[in-house]
């Protein structure tokens, strides 16, 4: 937690002041000098905070009012929000006694209430129409009436039960939004009304989700971020610095048992761990802005992170929150936008639900706030334009004006490597993007840390996309969020028994066990190590990483590269896994291709009755549909999906089992998607390779009924040479061109010279890898 | 075949002249008076045919040239076609010796050749650029060089092998297109060149596909339509009336064995059957324009039907071909457009491949020709606008001008009943369309005749759509047209063993056998009988039909209705099947829902190993995933697909088996789609009912993660009363409203009075059905 003030005095020496120290010092002074403190307090009273000041400001509102009718996207959003709020005002105030889980009436009603009064508050400011202020006031008074006597929520599933909702998380959502509503009508209320609301509602509410639930509040977790921000937002409105300090740095005392876990199996708090908002910004974000839980949860946390940052920027400018950790908040917006496929859907790393995208309201906030607080990031405008709506505040106005004035530039997603971990040294996630003649191919390779309680056991796993289509899928999570019929919308049993297990992912399984034996505590200690990431040559983009802890005694080294070769219609994906083990093991490498099998170049026998592939660690969920073997050295399968053809060509031995699977066994309530998979299984082997190429080729048009380029371009794929330190992969194409890929496993420096001799011919190169092409 | 000339003289008496008789008379005169004939021929020579005259005419071309640059869609199509042809001209002429099946090089090359020279001929006319004429000429000369010595195609699979292609069908495609090219450059060629081409190429070509292949030419079948039109088109260009007569009425002698069959198992020709183009227009089309093979094949046949009609209209106006059979050709265009879902995809009745749509080139022709030869059918322009391209002829120009001038009106698909059979008395296909608050729900109920060799054994089957999404799917065919990897792109074994079988469809199976015992000959003798079709009330649209021949001794009477009830978000589908049998049987009723099961209201046990549901007649292809029973009287399953929820509620007894299935067993080469199904099975029962309701309800948004209206609205569904003649279905909703549907099975007159007594209460109504609603 380091701040740079002014310019560096010398090249290597900067004046560094820790923000934390500043606050500590401030508190010390405040506490030790009560009289002075009182004086300060009096100054504050006279110099008191303007309202609104969180996401709207007095001058901002004036600016907005002047622009009304001249900024199409802003005007459209305003009209939509007004229609929505007007309908709710007609419906009347409903503040039921809490009873239900999410999806149930009381839950959904309270959720709607906070979303609507936040909007009503904004409408009051922008439209200067007291109808909206009155509505917010009535709603707040209704809550203030029931809150003092409300017991803890009757549903008992959560490790931190709320009062309005079954978990403190949702209570915190409520307060984050409601604080904004309160801020908007602050001056509309009398002092008596404000005192009543603060005494009977906001203060006890903030106390409940913090002091009374330290296991919720004093953590590093997206839940706690919401809690910290809720307390921080209301602290800002109430101008309560002590409460703000709690929000920023957490409770001083919590007595949390270091072995305590939450409902997802995650630890509550490590001994000595820093907590509070700043710690939640510090620890889960890597310097590259990657949030360790993955994009689905990063998206969820972005709203409180950014809306609170916006409020702090408005009220506590001196905190320079957007510069914190080298501007990680603004960086994280770009990271998140880059963690999407061509349609804007987030890659479903860890427990991610497919279909969540940058069209979500959290990303509307993120893009608008990101644009406003960064300079000239006009590429964000092109995302905002697709979103088609903006925040009704200064940031949204700026975006809408930018769109109106045609300032947007394309948002170009590049190949990039995102480090994981607080200091960026706990592995990462690499995205390779290959522009072909058709849609872009995107590879997502994960060599990150565990990702907290939502992490999956899938070191060195990958997924592959073509445009917005999944080619090789990551399963995502086994949950139907907010769909009552499926376990009340919560995590399903199969999330643990299938989605988290290693076999559910496109990576190496050893002896039918998951990485780290599926143990969260062990997994949380480790991460994979990057070996190389190099996208400097657009014709050969490469990522390579090692995993040595998933299976003690076994090292897995995976290298994946997009190769653009003129003999091929599109870039192909080269996948090389080198395994070095101390003992013999069984290895399974699944590829969850999506679509229908077109052909295989080997004999296989389809089962007449289907049995599960195994009994545990996820294998029990796979139907064993067919098994084959080949003596040709290559297993090749082609499949068809969304009018396109794909082929996987793998180097295999005569002993390897080639297994076709389908997800869905031991799934008593049809909770799983019945998708296909293809597994290459090697048994009783120590050191070995899995080498494959995935091609996207051709097209089928069901209207013209014409199939083009429907076949693989690869005639033969071989490991021409291998030793401890090197591998040479030979690719022979059907048009008789050929190429060879050389790779060094032992030295990843970019200027190291390498030399190997294959069949009396000497090959020399500099750097980790080399592609030799004869065509 | 009846023509009305002038106005009726008396109410019930019209002057009727059979067109066929006119032609016979004409031929009689021509044949009996050779001298006169010669004289006529001489007149013709002097009065000889202008060129072009088939799809382009001299005046038409002049008109087109004048409009160039002023008609956007026409200009765009022209530019696209020009670019395509120019590229091929650069590529040079390739006329390989025939060798391959479809998908192979020689097949695809010859196919491309005819498509390109047709376009090149048109470009020559429109652009007046001899480059194109020269290209066509070179291509034709290349064909004239090889044709005289070409043997029959080396591939032997077809019942009618071609010379350029493996089947005469494709040779006929070639001639239909090539005739147009020849017409376009006719005047560019010298008389010697024309004589050479006609002598060495066109005349022997026409002879080969007609006289030398009567089993192909002298049939009523889409194959023969192509053959007839091919001969007819070249006859028109060559001004050869004798050949034209053969095209219109077939060969006089053929010696076809009445037991002979084609590759699909269809009979070649019934004894005494009329043949030739007019017979192919007469017999397979019903008076409503429904083509008995179904929309997928109707689409395929539309091009030759309409392009030849256009040519006849241009050259033989006196035939009044568009008025033939009460204007059935133009009517059939509307029929075909109505046989599509909201996205324009044809309903996959019989052997239909999904994805074929009104965006196909055949439908571009159909829409353009339809617009040009009908009056004020401006709704066709809205389809043409979606297609975004037009024919490069007079018809396409008219359409493009219409679009440019904004003349289009919406194409509104209505509920309609399409009779099947030459005389419209062989059952039919009903389409009910219910406009809801979201997308339109469409029911397709099939109670037609067999549909020739491409027919499926699925009497009284149905499929259900919401917008462009399948809710309850028809499987379509087991074939991947032109995809080499899958059986060379031909029909797969599973088309016979699965897709054609009754269990593959959403209709009643008796004793695990298919309708007509899967016998084509028997199936071809019968059709279902309409009982009622009434869409006069938009709140209750109904179709009802009976089948008595599929299972001798058993009558199946199915009634389906869309009901708009204010308690429901959307119209729901009521499905009532009454079975009257002479003996006890087992009945299976499958519903092939698409999507993921959300919930069931009964206990079921998922199988730990999967076995096929049966051993034959398609049952061997179903995995038995789970079986349940219920004592509640209702089986209810809900599923989720494409962000929507659906629920099937069925009246069941305690004994009924409730079976979850998945397609894919006994499918050794992964040829089938592994889709789910739900079967209600009643065993050892004689007379019985299957009564169900299908609801579409609610929505799930993966971005907001909000599920709305996710549950069924039906609390209880009961058969309150039933006897030989009546049934009363009672529907109780969760909001305590209720309704009752009364139906008479024995009298379908619309003014018959009915009365039944249920629990001492007398119900009276007029007409077949009545819905009583208490809310």
UniProtKB/TrEMBL annotation, chains A, B:
<dbReference type="Pfam" id="PF05426">
    <property type="entry name" value="Alginate_lyase"/>
</dbReference>
<feature type="domain" description="Heparinase II/III-like C-terminal">
    <location>
        <begin position="419"/>
        <end position="597"/>
    </location>
</feature>
<feature type="domain" description="Alginate lyase">
    <location>
        <begin position="118"/>
        <end position="338"/>
    </location>
</feature>
<dbReference type="InterPro" id="IPR008929">
    <property type="entry name" value="Chondroitin_lyas"/>
</dbReference>
<dbReference type="InterPro" id="IPR012480">
    <property type="entry name" value="Hepar_II_III_C"/>
</dbReference>
<dbReference type="GO" id="GO:0042597">
    <property type="term" value="C:periplasmic space"/>
</dbReference>
<keyword id="KW-0456">Lyase</keyword>
<keyword id="KW-0732">Signal</keyword>
<protein>
    <submittedName>
        <fullName>Heparinase</fullName>
    </submittedName>
</protein>
<dbReference type="Pfam" id="PF07940">
    <property type="entry name" value="Hepar_II_III_C"/>
</dbReference>
<dbReference type="GO" id="GO:0016829">
    <property type="term" value="F:lyase activity"/>
</dbReference>
<dbReference type="InterPro" id="IPR008397">
    <property type="entry name" value="Alginate_lyase_dom"/>
</dbReference>
<keyword id="KW-0574">Periplasm</keyword>
């Amino acid at each position: 937690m380091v701040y740079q003030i002014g310019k560096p005095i010398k090249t290597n020496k900067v004046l560094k002041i820790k923000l934390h120290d500043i606050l500590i010092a401030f508190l010390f002074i405040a506490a030790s000098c009560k009289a002075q403190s009182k004086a300060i307090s009096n100054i504050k009273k006279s110099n008191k905070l303007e309202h609104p000041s969180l996401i709207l400001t007095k001058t901002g509102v004036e600016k907005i009012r002047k622009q009304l009718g001249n900024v199409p996207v802003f005007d459209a959003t305003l009209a939509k929000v007004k229609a929505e709020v007007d309908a709710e005002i007609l419906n009347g105030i409903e503040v039921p006694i809490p009873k239900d889980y999410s999806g149930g009436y009381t839950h959904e009603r309270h959720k709607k209430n906070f979303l609507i009064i936040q909007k009503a508050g904004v409408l009051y400011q922008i439209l200067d129409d007291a109808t909206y202020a009155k509505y917010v006031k009535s709603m707040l008074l209704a809550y203030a009436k029931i809150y003092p006597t409300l017991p803890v929520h009757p549903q008992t599933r959560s490790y931190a039960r709320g009062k309005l909702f079954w978990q403190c998380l949702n209570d915190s959502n409520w307060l984050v939004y409601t604080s904004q509503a309160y801020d908007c009508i602050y001056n509309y209320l009398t002092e008596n009304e404000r005192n009543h609301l603060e005494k009977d509602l906001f203060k006890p509410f903030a106390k409940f989700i913090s002091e009374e639930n330290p296991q919720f509040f004093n953590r590093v977790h997206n839940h706690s971020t919401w809690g910290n921000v809720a307390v921080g937002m209301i602290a800002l409105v109430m101008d309560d610095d002590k409460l703000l300090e709690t929000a920023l740095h957490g409770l001083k005392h919590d007595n949390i048992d270091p072995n305590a876990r939450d409902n997802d199996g995650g630890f509550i708090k490590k001994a000595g761990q820093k907590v509070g908002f700043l710690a939640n910004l510090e620890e889960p974000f890597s310097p590259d802005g990657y949030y360790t839980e993955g994009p689905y949860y990063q998206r969820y946390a972005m709203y409180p992170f950014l809306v609170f940052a916006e409020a702090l920027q408005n009220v506590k400018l001196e905190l320079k929150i957007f510069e914190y950790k080298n501007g990680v908040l603004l960086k994280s917006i770009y990271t998140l936008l880059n963690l999407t496929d061509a349609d804007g859907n987030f890659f479903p790393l860890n427990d991610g639900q497919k279909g969540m995208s940058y069209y979500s309201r959290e990303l509307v906030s993120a893009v608008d706030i990101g644009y406003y607080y960064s300079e000239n990031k006009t590429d964000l405008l092109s995302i905002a334009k697709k979103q088609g709506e903006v925040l009704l505040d200064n940031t949204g106005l700026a975006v809408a004006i930018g769109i109106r004035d045609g300032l947007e530039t394309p948002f170009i997603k590049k190949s990039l490597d995102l480090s994981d971990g607080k200091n960026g040294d706990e592995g990462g996630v690499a995205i390779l993007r290959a522009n072909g003649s058709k849609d872009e191919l995107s590879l997502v390779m994960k060599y990150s840390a565990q990702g907290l309680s939502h992490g999956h056991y899938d070191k060195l796993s990958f997924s592959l996309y073509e445009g917005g289509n999944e080619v090789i899928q990551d399963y995502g999570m086994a949950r139907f969020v907010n769909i009552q019929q499926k376990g009340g919308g919560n995590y399903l049993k199969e999330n643990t028994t299938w989605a988290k297990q290693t076999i559910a992912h496109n990576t190496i399984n050893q002896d039918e066990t998951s990485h780290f034996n599926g143990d969260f505590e062990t997994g949380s200690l480790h991460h994979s190590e990057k070996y190389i990431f190099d996208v400097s040559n657009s014709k050969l983009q490469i990522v390579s990483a090692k995993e040595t802890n998933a299976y003690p005694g076994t090292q897995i080294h995976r290298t994946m590269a997009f190769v653009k070769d003129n003999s091929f219609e599109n870039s192909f994906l080269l996948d090389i896994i080198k395994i070095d083990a101390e003992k013999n093991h069984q290895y399974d490498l699944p590829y969850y291709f999506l679509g229908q099998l077109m052909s295989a170049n080997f004999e296989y026998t389809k089962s007449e009755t289907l049995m599960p592939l195994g009994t545990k660690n996820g294998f029990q969920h796979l139907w064993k549909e067919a098994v084959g073997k080949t003596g040709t050295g290559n297993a090749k399968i082609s499949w068809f999906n969304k009018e396109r053809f794909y082929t996987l060509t793998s180097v295999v031995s005569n002993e390897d089992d080639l297994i076709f699977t389908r997800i869905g066994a031991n799934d008593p309530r049809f909770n799983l998607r019945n998708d296909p998979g293809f597994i290459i299984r090697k048994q009783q082997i120590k050191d070995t390779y899995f080498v494959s190429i995935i091609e996207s080729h051709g097209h089928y048009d069901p209207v013209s009924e014409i199939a083009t380029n429907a076949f693989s371009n690869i005639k033969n794929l071989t490991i021409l040479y291998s030793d401890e330190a090197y591998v040479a992969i030979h690719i022979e194409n059907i048009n008789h061109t050929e190429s060879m890929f050389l790779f060094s496993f032992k030295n990843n420096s970019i200027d190291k010279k390498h030399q190997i001799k294959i069949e009396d011919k000497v090959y020399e190169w500099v750097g980790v890898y080399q592609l030799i092409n004869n065509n």
